[in-house]
Design brief:
alpha+beta, three-stranded antiparallel sheet, two-stranded antiparallel sheet, 5 strands, binds zinc ion, signal, metal-binding, C1-like_sf
Length: about 80
């Protein structure tokens, strides 16, 4: 029991030391889409539903993904 407590305490201190949350394995950072609303001066094609995007739409600042505003939340968070 005592050993267990010591280990837990040690893990906690180790965690503070490296500032990593306990149990979270660090992965390579994934790129996320960052959509902003735009007024397009010519019609574009929505990458998600393949319909035309007329004037108002969303475009990702990271990868230039273009879609309707209403399609935006159906696009997966990560690239
Ligand atoms: Zn993107
Ligand atoms: Zn769409």
């Amino acid at each position: 029991m005592l050993v267990c407590d010591v280990l837990t305490l040690w893990e906690w201190y180790a965690c503070l030391w490296c500032a990593d949350p306990v149990g979270v394995v660090e992965e390579a950072p994934k790129l996320k889409h960052r959509f902003r609303h735009y007024y397009f001066n010519r019609s574009r094609t929505c990458f998600l539903c393949k319909q035309k995007v007329l004037s108002q739409g969303s475009a990702c600042q990271v990868c230039r993904y273009i879609c309707h505003r209403q399609c935006e939340n159906q696009v997966s968070v990560y690239l």
